[in-house]
TrEMBL record:
<dbReference type="InterPro" id="IPR001579">
    <property type="entry name" value="Glyco_hydro_18_chit_AS"/>
</dbReference>
<dbReference type="GO" id="GO:0008061">
    <property type="term" value="F:chitin binding"/>
</dbReference>
<feature type="domain" description="GH18">
    <location>
        <begin position="68"/>
        <end position="412"/>
    </location>
</feature>
<keyword id="KW-0378">Hydrolase</keyword>
<feature type="signal peptide">
    <location>
        <begin position="1"/>
        <end position="16"/>
    </location>
</feature>
<protein>
    <recommendedName>
        <fullName>GH18 domain-containing protein</fullName>
    </recommendedName>
</protein>
<dbReference type="GO" id="GO:0005576">
    <property type="term" value="C:extracellular region"/>
</dbReference>
<dbReference type="GO" id="GO:0004568">
    <property type="term" value="F:chitinase activity"/>
</dbReference>
<keyword id="KW-0732">Signal</keyword>
<dbReference type="InterPro" id="IPR011583">
    <property type="entry name" value="Chitinase_II/V-like_cat"/>
</dbReference>
<keyword id="KW-0326">Glycosidase</keyword>
<dbReference type="GO" id="GO:0005975">
    <property type="term" value="P:carbohydrate metabolic process"/>
</dbReference>
<feature type="region of interest" description="Disordered">
    <location>
        <begin position="37"/>
        <end position="60"/>
    </location>
</feature>
<keyword id="KW-0325">Glycoprotein</keyword>
<dbReference type="GO" id="GO:0006032">
    <property type="term" value="P:chitin catabolic process"/>
</dbReference>
<dbReference type="InterPro" id="IPR001223">
    <property type="entry name" value="Glyco_hydro18_cat"/>
</dbReference>
<dbReference type="InterPro" id="IPR029070">
    <property type="entry name" value="Chitinase_insertion_sf"/>
</dbReference>
Length: 412
């Protein structure tokens, strides 16, 4: 492990919880060979997030993080039976996704979801321990992004949407609601986003008072950073409204690099000395913007990004690529384990970014494994974050990463 990694990690955690730097604090390494990467070539000029200022290092009062949120999104379309979910590793599980209807602005509960949701909730409630279940709305579909932008423009359309979410949430017995709007595109949409949260929270308060039922949680999946320098015009999230009206936020700390670029890079780097595409920068930006750390639930990917190398002999992070790799650019963690095993892949742990990559011929896979997830969880604890979530449950390999994250969070 590189000295730079230890220096950077020590800097991050020095004022957080007292993490031992002795070897006993680390998890057992993967049975596959862990090689220190040779010196990586410099990253090519970044096409996005070119402001290379260091990640903010805010100070804040210590908070009690003895308990936390251990969450995961469950895509209803992925085929994983709810009865297969081991709830001992999770406190909250998100049902993903219900779409917004573009005409009525109500949730579109299709016959598929009408059948799937009751089974999902009943199964998770019957487990020991039971997990709280939240309904996630929207997702990465560009159509949904557009529908949100239209729905949020007036109080009338916002009210229709809000009332529909509460009706569906109560009908099926969800514990909360989650907005996955990817992403508000400009300052006006950010203003509408804030108005939506304010009106939504007030409706939840009123409904709970009227029904006598527990107040539904309200959360939101958000961009990894509080500020955008990509995907349109520069803009920032309405942090004051988010603090006032959301129970917590889920920054999606992944997809920093992918096959849309012509060079390899970590899918979810903890550190990046060359750009702001890192989890330390993203989480730091939210805290610097004023979000209390305990309201930040950090995202972790259970998948990796793949490329086809231009030259198999030049295979470090930042190596030139000429297209997508295995899995059409994406492999789940379980598929990566199988791919590396079947092809005798050479596995590297990169201490600079705190990430893994493997190389098989001209195939390059960037992903998280045991050591990188361990240090990310310890980073989250050191910063007093409220917890973490995975995208997505069902992509793990026999619960390896879910178990490791849960145990690492509980480690004192």
């Amino acid at each position: 492990m590189s000295p730079l990694f230890f220096l950077m990690l020590y800097t991050v955690i020095a004022n957080g919880d007292s993490i031992s730097m002795s070897p006993v604090a680390s998890p057992s390494p993967s049975p596959r060979p862990l090689l220190i990467s040779p010196t990586s070539p410099a990253y090519p000029p970044m096409a996005e997030d070119e402001n290379n200022a260091p990640a903010p290092s805010p100070s804040y009062p210590p908070v009690d993080i003895s308990q936390g949120i251990k969450a995961a999104y469950w895509p209803s379309f992925n085929g994983l039976d709810p009865s297969s979910i081991d709830t001992s590793y999770f406190t909250h599980i998100y049902y993903a996704f219900l779409p917004l209807d573009p005409v009525s602005f109500k949730l579109n509960v299709t016959p598929f979801h009408q059948e799937m949701i009751p089974e999902f909730i009943a199964t998770l409630r019957s487990r020991n321990p039971p997990a709280k279940v939240l309904l996630s709305i929207g997702g990465a579909d560009p159509n949904q992004t557009y529908y949100f932008s239209i729905m949020s423009t007036t109080n009338q359309t916002r009210a229709v949407f809000i009332n529909s979410t509460i009706e569906v949430g109560r009908k099926y017995g969800f514990d909360g609601l989650d907005l996955d709007w990817e992403f508000p595109a400009n300052d006006q949409e950010m203003i509408n986003f804030a108005l939506l949260l304010e009106e939504w929270q007030q409706a939840l308060v009123d409904e709970a008072a009227t029904s006598g039922k527990p107040h539904l949680l309200l959360t939101s999946a958000v961009y990894y950073s509080s500020m955008f320098t990509t995907y349109g015009v520069p803009r920032s999230y309405p942090v004051k409204a988010m603090n006032n009206f959301l129970d917590w936020i889920n920054p999606m700390c992944y997809d920093y690099h992918g096959s849309w670029q012509n060079f390899t890079g970590p899918n979810a780097a903890l550190f990046d000395p060359y750009s702001n595409l890192s989890t330390t920068h993203g989480v730091g930006s939210w805290i610097e913007a004023g979000v209390p750390p305990e309201k930040i639930v950090m995202g972790l990917p259970l998948y990796g990004r793949t490329w086809k190398l231009k030259d198999p002999n030049v295979s470090g992070i930042g190596a030139e690529a000429v297209g997508v790799g295995p899995g059409d650019g994406v492999l789940s963690y379980s598929e990566i384990v199988e791919f590396n095993s079947e092809n005798k892949g050479t596995v590297y742990f990169d201490g600079e970014s705190v990430s893994y990559y493997s190389v098989v011929g001209d195939s390059w896979v960037g992903y998280d494994d045991t050591m990188s997830v361990y240090w990310k969880i310890r980073f989250a604890r050191s910063q007093g974050l409220g917890g973490y979530f995975f995208w997505a449950i069902g992509q793990d390999n026999d619960w390896t990463m879910s178990r490791l994250a849960s145990n690492s969070w509980d480690y004192k």
